[in-house]
Amino acid sequence: MADAPPPNESSEDYAAAHALEYKNRGNAKFKERDYEGAVQAFSEAIALDPSNAVLYSNRSGAYLAMSHVSKAFKDAEEAVRLDPQWPKALARRATAEHALTRYITAQATWRKALQLDPGNEAYEKALQAAKDGEAQQTKERIEDEKRKEREAEEKRRRDAADEAKRREDARNEEQLKDFFGVLEDDKVQRARKKKLETNPITEKYQKQKLGKGADHKRDRTILVIEGARERCRQERAFKLSKGVDPATLPPEEEALQKEVAKTFAQNEMKRRDVEEHNRVQQQRERDQAAEAEKKEADEKLFEKQWNTDDRRGARVGMWQDFQDDKKRSANVKRQRTAVNFKREEKQETKKKYGEWDRESWRRDWK
Q1: Each residue's pLDDT tens digit, 108-123
Q2: Which of 143, 151, 137, 68 is nearest to 106 (CA)?
Q3: How far apart are CA 76 and CA 87, in angstroms?
Q4: Where in the sequence does UniProt note compositional bias of the Basic and acidic residues kind (predicted)?
Q5: In sequence order, which ranges of the chain are alpha helices (DSSP H)?
Q6: Domains of the chain: residue spans and CATH
Q7: Against a cut of 0.90, is the pTM above it?
Q8: Phi/psi of residue 13, each to 5°?
Q9: Are the CB atoms for 45 and 51 separated by under 8 Å?
Q10: Residue 8 gets which letter from DSSP?
């Protein structure tokens, strides 16, 4: 720790002697990095000699080592008050001010210390560090202000976008009232209403379901309106980019309304086409089902008639006749085969013209 200033006339007093003993003990504790013990020893010394600036300065150093900056600043202030011309006390206060990020006051205190101890390199380095800290603090403050300005500007843009969206939704809501009935399917609504009337137990559930369907239709219609408006804006921007005179174009709001009406008309035509296609398909399916039913009925009738007694007897008689015919055919075939065999035998025994019978001697010999 720092050396004490020259002792005054009361240094040989009993309390001052014990205060010096506690101060030495505190310095030893400080070197051992036992900062709490050092603070306790310096406090005992201050209690015995409260007018000694060195004791406050030493305890301020111990508090700084413990990161108790506020207590260190108070002790440094007291040391400067007791001995304003002691540069070490000013250095303690400047160090505490730097730790408290009071860079401007720290610079002033370091300058006073340099006036009392000119050429001290440690003080000059500390003064430069305070200047750097002030510059960094100023930079951070400027960046923080810019960040706040950006956040405020972004908030203003969001608010403006929300307001524009709210106005757009209001316009869509107005157009929705005009076109919502066109998109609503009357058949589905009548079917749901009839189901509600015939099923009073599920009335609450059906109402909720009907409400959800209406909300879905409403959301879909809003999307259709927004899409039509966006297409109109893009087409208008494209024409302007190609050099078209804005005076030749219709007003934007009128063009938006026409585009929305055109889109709804196209959607309605598509809906009717789909409905007609579904109707034709359903009619075709009904015709096919009726044809299949008629074919099945004809097959059942034929099966029923086929299994009657008269038809069965006729079929049995026809089968018997067929079997008789088959037997007669077999007999005729056998007869024809026998006749042919006899004819072949006769043909084999008949001597051909100019042929010599080599077996005649056998017959003659027998």
Answers
A1: 888 888 888 888 888 8
A2: 137
A3: 11
A4: 131-177, 268-307, 341-366
A5: 14-31, 35-48, 53-65, 69-82, 87-99, 103-116, 121-183, 186-198, 203-241, 252-306, 309-349, 360-365
A6: 9-139 (1.25.40.10), 184-291 (no CATH)
A7: no
A8: -70, 160
A9: no
A10: -
